[in-house]
Amino acid sequence: MSPLGARTLGRSPSEVALDLALRHATYLIFLAVILYFGIQSPAFLAPESLGNVVKQASFIGIAAIGMTFVLLTGGIDLSVGSVMYLAPLIAGFAMEAFGLGVPAGLVVAVCAGAVLGAINALFIVRFDVIPFIVTLATLFLFRGFGTWLTSSRQFDFAPEMRAFGLSSVLGIPTPILVFAVVALAAHVVLSRTPFGRQIYALGNDAEGARKAGVRVGVVKGSVYVVSSASAALAGFVLIAQIGRLDAAFGEGREFDVIAAAVLGGASLFGGVGSAWGAVIGATLIQTVKLGLVFAGVNLYLQPIMQGLIIFVAVLADSLRQRRIAISRRRHIRPSA
Amino acid sequence: MTRTKLLAAAATAALIGVGSAGGAQAATICFAFQDLETEFWIAGHKAITTTLTEAGHTVIERNANEDANRQFEQVRDCIAQGVDGIILIPQDGESAVTIVAEAQDNDVPIAVFNRPPSDLSRGIVVVADNAAIAEQAVDYLVEEALAAAPAGETLTPLIVVGDLGDPNAVGRKEGFYAAIEKHADRFATPIEVASEWDAATALANLEAAVTANPDIDLLFTSSDFLFPTIRSVLEPRGMWKRRGEEGHVLMGGLDGDATACQLIKEGYVDATGVQDLYFEAESAMDAILAAIEAGEAQPNQVIEDPGFALTAANLGEREMDMWGCVLLSEGFLRN
Amino acid sequence: MSALLRFESLSKAWFGVPAVSDLTLEIAEGAALGLIGQNGAGKSTLMNMIGGVVEPTAGRMLWRGEPYAPARPADATAAGIAFIHQELNLFTNLSVAENLYIDGFPTRLGMIDRRAIRARTEEILARLDLAVSPDTIVGELSPGERQLVEIAKALHNEARLVIFDEPTTSLTPRETQRLFDVIGRLKAQGRTIIYISHILSDVARLCDAIAVLRDGLLVDSGPAEAFDVPRMIRSMIGRDLDGLFPPRTAAPGPTPLLEARGLTQPGVLEDVTVTVHAGEVVGLFGLMGAGRTELARILFGLDPVEAGEIRLDGAPLPAGPRGRIARGLAFVTENRREEGLMMEASIMDNLGLVSIRDFGRGPAGLIDRDALAARAEEARRDLSIKAGDIGRQPVKALSGGNQQKVVIGKWLMSAPRVFILDEPTRGVDVGAKFEIYALIDRIAAAGSGILLISSEIEELMGMADRIVVMSRGETTGALARRDFDRERILRMAFRETAA
Amino acid sequence: MHSTVKAAKTKRSLGARAADVFLSDYFVLYMSLAYVAVLAPFLPVLLAPANLSNVLSNMWPLLVVAVGQTFVLAIAGIDLSQGAVVGLTSVVGAMLIATMADPVVLANAPVWGLVLTESGGPFGQMEWGFLLGIAVMVAVAAAIGAANGASVAVFGMPPFMVTLVGLISVGALAIYLTQSENIRHLPDAYVMLGKGDIASVHLGPKDTPQIPRRQIHSFVTYPMLIAIAVALLAHLLLAKTVFGKWVLAIGVNRKAAELSGVPVRRVVVLVFVISAVCAALAAVLYSARLEAGRPTLGEGNFLLDVIGAVVIGGTSLFGGKAKIVWTVFGVLFFVLLSNTLNLMNLSSFQIDMVKGGVILAAALLDVLRTRLMRERMR
Fold it and tell me: Minimal Cα–Cα distance from A122 to chain D, Å?
């Protein structure tokens, strides 16, 4: 009531600073991680090193962007690791059989990924099987199909493949370009198109979305196609850098991909997340991993430190969200 | 309701399909291996299955996917199926001991192939010493490096380490260190790069390591299957050069696969440690077949595969002793 | 053809049990029809048939003279029918504008034409006097504001027929008035309205015609002039009801139970003092945003408070809800779906949630199922919750009134000393409302104290011994029962000089 | 006329009874049995006593882990760290109770000299030392579970990320402790827990004085008793106690539970502790039967098997819907699946495809059942 009382409501500078810090916690942690490793090994701050980080993050990052679509609907896609393997493999066979060039191969890989995603979608949408089980089954099915095709042997691509993977346009490595294009496209789709907004609506309230006239089946199915196509592209771009596809490629990557998306703010319960978040999540994890390599940390300790840094990032994010929730609590009385 | 029916039909069809896929046959030899993910294991797998099948035996395959527990269960399932003998590529020496004991307690003869049990006293054991073979290969690299470098210069070695959960990877790392430490005064602390036996991880980590330490004199990979990955990192940096060319990095690996053979021939790679895959496979098969014939339930025998390093220097004489070169000559890499 | 929508012998049965039987009724274009009936009378089923959610088992509907058989909700929307539900159908993670356009965005080059939807949304919001940006995320809006967004959606769809299902339950009087103005304007534009509400005076005020459903049958209908509130109630429940509120049976005692003094939390409350005596029903009135719910949460220990003290039976309360529950505080929240009930769980599990510890035996806390079932059954009978097998039936299968009884029941099972009831009759039909009021009286008569929060002044005037009024986080006055006066209370709520 | 009505009635009730079977809690059990029935003619070994004894013994350790996971899924959480906890606790236990250790193998390990020496671990020479070792394993697991739970409950961090960090860090710690090596020479009493028979059967003539080992089939084993005890306790805890009600309440509606005085934080922490402790108990079974403490236990597809078994049993990933019986049947199905895949003599290149196909078929049946159930409810 009293004007004096009102003035004491003004927050102290330290509180303001803390608030500011928490609001941008992810970026601050990012910065802190880069600086920390930069001090450990100044070479880490060289543009080439940081470029490498982004380039290597593109692999998990591209798939994580696709995964974000799925997570937004409250689903999950465990089959991405197998798609990363199978789709480029199919592309490889097609390239060999029809003498296709690398760009055509890339298209084949993405299409193959889309088809694999459509298989997931079929079971999830038409038959109502829960996504966890469907994609767990296809995780085995897809990899099994690949090992059956190859008898587990590696697949060697023509040398042009590597030329493509290691190429750069205007000094920017191709994988980074692909990553950027996918991120931008996903961002536009998610935030600017009817389809994107319907994904958010679906994740928020599936029944409500159905009532509102959203074609729930189509939207729900599409996200699995997007996820698999992204995983296929991610796999293809990475394989292009090596030129050889091993039978174990992509195994267990589903957890890395989901982790990157979740670290980027996506919720496993749907409705929350963004393409940009997936980019940040994947890049942050890769920064930590490569920073540890630069710093020359003992191999046995690297994963432990990696875990701790991710933990701190997630912790900061949780505190930030709590802070935001508190500040959003409605202020009835005019403050200050 | 029609959809419900469709569902029922699909589910039944799938089950029946599975059923008919499993037409059971009288089994004779159970071949339980830990994984099938690199050329080495695939070649070994092929050698054993085709040889035995062609000789009229039945092979029951079990892939443990790098899970010792699963392997233990699989071997017990084999025993329950009443196989006559077991050929085992164990996940590691410790689980091998347990599995050998399990088989012998159930009166099934067992031969262990490639990865020796920690206790060599039981079972037919074909031994190859990963550490010793790795050491031989790195020894060659070290000699070459020291010969080429001006006296007093400190050299920087790098090792691409395998999955730390895999004892094979650890053995190879130990062999590498043993060779380097013989000349500790001439070498800087080796740079270790984790690969987790995964090409994508190796690519990322090696690239970072090479960016952080551009002056590498010697590179050893714990498995030959990573050479294509290494090429992708070194080539753009002008470090992928043939022997004799300016900027050649001395390079070695282990396994002796077809890619390594080709690269040694082309001059990019200098040495690789070789396990005599065909010798090992054959000895294991022969011994187990002999034991079955003789009705021996607990055969114990140690067969050693000394292994060797195929190097640029001995390429001429020993090429065809390396399984990878045999595969290469058969056109393996044309895919 | 003046009938916009006509039902002809419309029936719907669930496995032989009729929900709507042989209903024939028509709604004239441009008219406002009030549809009333108790929960379970068949209103929802009828609406679901109009909305394309369920298919009639017999009979048909005519829309502008043409047979109308919607197969899905989108068909209804396409025909020009909009629903304003009591359970809002908004996506809390999307913006206001996006919520309006979710079923069909205007696009340019495949991308949402944001400028267009923003402009159009702004215009619609202006018509509703809703001063929020079209880009505001709905999750950040108050319940009242969300309701208006829902109406904006109907306006946006240029619906010919707008169906309001309990639209005012979360609105403040001011917002309600705004809504009524909007409805008036809709009528003036020639749009047709179906208005469903338990607030019968509103129905009488707004509608041209009234139809009453009971047990799936149309029991009464006619022009609104012919209906007064008693007739409506009579038709709905099939008998007379003596007044809307039960008489209070006991007077409050002198002992203060709950005493809150000088509660201050920056930005929320300022020096709030409230006392609840044994056997007393204290009404807490205030406009939306006056701080009623915030006060309740602070009393219950859910939100922090900077200054002031809260005592129960003279002793200060521990921090946090658990300690306060143990001391005898109970809190029926305004949002029973999200905060009150486990919708998927059984009635018994819900009833037992608070007091479950009392049924734990031994160090492991093994539940005495028989005791729990007996006690829950007792509560069910006590509260006359209409349900079959309480051990199996999930709460979500109950009507709103019965759900609310379950919420009250779970607290009753822990025999609390002070009840905080936040909008306990929201979305509850006349009959159930009366039962809840009777329950409030019984609890008070048994010596517990009640803090009754409501935005319906009549409800407070009917039930409370004393009314405390809040405005902008402060208490602006208190009236004893004999001084109750609608206008004075409102003036306090609007902070006009207290008379 | 009369009789036809009656006939129709019996027919209906028969059909209804069949539907009951299809729709009950025991569905996954019936499905597993049907699966066995379909395959048995093609795979005669499937029903051989030796094989059944294998199926059972493979079930126990997985069941113990899955029971723990069930609690976490019940509160709408997920525990990815279970596998890593299995690995770490097996190492911790082994380094305490080993009766001897080989310096050639383990001298590089950071625990060498501190805990582990040539004469084994500190409890290695004690008669009941292995029990102390197990106690420490449980304590370590409880600490990890408490850390997981506190992160989730107190800081509101997503369980997926918290336990993923656990998976990475705890797993790495296990490997670090032994520098990739396995610790052998566990006491016999401990190994007994992993594969010791309490009762075994011999089916066949009693003519030979010395029955060959492979004809004696384990019947009642220590792992069986341990796993059944764990499952039974867990069942009582989840279905019959106040704590269990709290767990499910949090899973259905955390907010309502909190407002109703459920000690949400404490329950969440405890749930993660239970999950980790179950992992530690499974670590006993796994490491005992392999006779070594192994840092890599629980790696790879282990996690997918655990969560897959629980989910296919019927427990919801979204919380509030969980029963231990379901988990038992889910585990049985997964174990049967991998057993039959072994028996089918498929080539390694086909086995994954078949596995995926069977999981899908099972899921389709489950959907069919849910649909029938819904139709019946109407």
Answer: 12
